[in-house]
Amino acid sequence: MSTEYSDFQDFNLSKQLHYAIADLGFDKPTAIQQKAFAPILSGKNVLGIAQTGTGKTFAYMLPLLRELKFSKQIQPRILILVPTRELVLQQVEQIASYAKYMSIRVVGVYGGTNINTQGQTVAQGCDILVGTPGRVYDLAMANVLKFKSITKLVIDEVDVMLDLGFIFQLTNIFELIPERRQNMMFSATMTDEIAALIDQFFIAPVNISVAISGTPLENIQQYCYYVENFYTKINLLSELIDHKNVYQKVLVFTATKKQADIVFSRLEERFGHEMGIVHSNKSQNYRIKSIEAFESGNNRILITTDVMARGLDLDKISHVICMDTPNYPENYMHRIGRTGRAEEAGNAILFYSEKEVSAKEAIEGLMKKKIEELDVPEQVERSTELLPEERLRPGKHKNPNRNLKKREGGGAFHEKKDKNKKVNLGGKYRRELKKKYKKPQKRGDKIKNNRKKK
Length: 454
Ligand code: AMP
Hints:
Layout: H1 15-24, H2 31-41, E1 46-49, H3 56-67, E2 78-81, H4 85-98, E3 106-109, H5 115-123, E4 128-131, H6 133-141, E5 152-155, H7 158-163, H8 167-176, E6 182-187, H9 192-201, E7 206-209, E8 220-226, H10 230-241, E9 250-254, H11 257-271, E10 275-278, H12 284-296, E11 301-305, H13 306-309, E12 319-322, H14 329-336, E13 346-352, H15 357-367, E14 372-374, H16 402-407, H17 418-424, H18 428-437, H19 443-453
Parallel strand pairs: 1-6, 1-7, 2-4, 2-5, 3-4, 5-6, 8-13, 8-14, 9-11, 9-12, 10-11, 12-13
The structure holds adenosine monophosphate.
């Protein structure tokens, strides 16, 4: 790391920027700010691998603001593309605070709201435009927005952007913006898709990385529970978050939007007055309200998905609870990174089922650390209800060795607690019922028996 930029005094900034830094209470530049300053200032293309919370927004804004001169021109000179409306609002707010003492106009545009109103705002003139790719492109097509004066392009959260399928809007925009421009891209992870995008559109970017992958933040306590299925996971979640004094601000991650909805509807009766939900199928107003209610402390619990939560700058989360075990270990790191921020103590709790054992082990492998296992409290009701994806029939398992492992008695890839071994034998509940009532108690059993008789 360059020692040259270890202090904001080394950046040769204007008084206005120093005042803003003092107002914001930033003592010293973060790692990404130190590393990105010189290459961005020199006009090079930059690829930054850094997640939210590392101070990446200020990392690219600082050199850009340092160079941005007052202008009365209408069309923007800096274009910042971000994947979601929430991020637009957040970035606009952050940039406005950085440029508080400068005469800089920052405007945010995003889909789902009246394009004419936004067009009128843009037409009044702006220096920095922050927007989602779809809306930015539509405004350009409507001839309200002109790209000819753009010299700096920032694409933030590229991985999420590609994940959401914005590649077409992005490439359309690239083709319209003047070729002589500086490109800055930021992403939490490096993926093959990003590499391909860079290959196609960007010349020799300087790579800067402050990725946290693999290093669990020291101040985060991590625990896990073995839970046999999704609905039992909901029962466990309900049991845990009922301890209001401990679970003061809880961010709950689910694998899909549908699962987020199920968790919400199951817990609504008990926690509805203090619980919100945010995912990309919810209306924009609903999402903003949910996030605000959680941020302000009116709601104690927020249910979300990976894509929605990434990039949100949520403060002081006491617990991150993962209802599923992410297949990509990095996603687990991102999730738990939402707690324990700014050196505060945080807690991360992972629920994993039999199918998720290998994903959990991959996470532990990346962290080089085992997650402490806790026993599911006795009073948590074990559900026999299954999600369609949990009801995979034999022969449809993705892992062909799965049944083999069971036959060998290994159960999984690691030694489980006795209690869990029993549960994992499969069908225990049914067998017990059968023993007790001497006949099948479930519809499925009857159908199977009738088939056998034929
Ligand atoms: P970001 O990664 O851009 O989303 O920033 C995360 C948070 O860190 C924001 O709330 C910023 O205001 C804050 N931040 C940015 N730079 C610094 C810094 N040098 N010192 C302390 N906090 C910072």
